[in-house]
Amino acid sequence: MMEDSLSPASITNNLDTRFIGQRVIYYPRLTSTMDVAKREAKQGAAEGTIVVADEQTAGKGRLKHGWLSPEGNIALSIILYPSLTYLPFLIMLASLSVVHSIEAVTGLKSQVKWPNDILINGRKVCGILIESDVRGDTVGYTIVGIGVNVNLRLSAFPEILSTATSLYDELGREVSRLSLIQRILVEIEKLYLSLPAGGSVYQEWRDRLVTLGKRVQVKTGKTVYKGIAESVASDGSLLLRQSDGSLTRIVAGDATLVVK
Ligand code: BTN
């Protein structure tokens, strides 16, 4: 596999950002970059500090799922201290940054499945997990966790073969994790800094959702909703039209496109 070091020096070298990624905590192997990032944030790490790892042994997915994170992929967590107003936009800007970066580095087009799965040809290439410490209307910290299947050979992981893909599998060649990480950091910072000026991440995120207008099944906890994904609100929630005509607002869930 391609030798692209994710050492702090290689990531910060020529990194064109003001603060995101300017401090790097790197581990060859750890449980989850989320755990380390949370610990650092609680100790007041500088905003934009990132935690990266070559391999995670207990990667975390959304809704308490696990996340397969072997060598060759990107496992990245970014520490931010946004105000509460911007919190819903982080899901959107993280997804858009990955879509833009994958296209810039590989030429591949990807789509967003609500709320923040990145798909190529209908298969998941990236998952995003956002964890925040919110008390009242104060955000203690937010960790944006991004996992990208970069040089993973799906044939070695039959359990996810039908639902996942990797940049390697799509292109038939390896991709530099370093170039992709640097690009993601630049894109995230650009969009994050645009928020106070009214940056329009909501519109672009909505326009890129493959989910809208489709028949979906959404699992939230033990409840499963079925209907047409009609729209998304500016706080990121999904508006689902059910067969009885009612419109249900879903804040968080796992959406599956129903093929008919
Ligand atoms: C999902 O789609 O369920 C979200 C997956 C998020 C995975 C990333 S990899 C980097 C960070 N560390 C983790 O343990 N999880 C996130």
Terminal-residue CA separation: 40 Å
**Full CATH superfamily name of the largest domain:** Bira Bifunctional Protein, Domain 2
The ligands found in this model are: biotin
Radius of gyration over all CA atoms, rounded: 18 Å
Q: Rough shape?
A: globular
Low-confidence stretches: none
Secondary structure tally, helices = 6
Structural class by sheet pairing and helices:
alpha+beta
Order of strands across the biggest sheet? 1-2-5-9-8-7-6
Q: Supply the CATH class of the largest domain.
A: Alpha Beta
Mean pLDDT over all positions: 94
Which series of helices and strands comes N to C? HEHEEEEHEEEEHHHEEEEE
Describe the fold and architecture.
The chain has six helices and 14 strands. It has 260 residues and is of the alpha+beta class. A seven-stranded mixed sheet has the order 1-2-5-9-8-7-6, with helices on both faces. A five-stranded antiparallel sheet has the order 13-12-11-10-14, with no helix packed on it. A two-stranded antiparallel ribbon has the order 3-4. Helix 3 (87-106) packs antiparallel against helix 5 (177-194) and helix 3 (87-106) crosses helix 6. 40% of the residues are buried. The structure holds biotin (BTN).
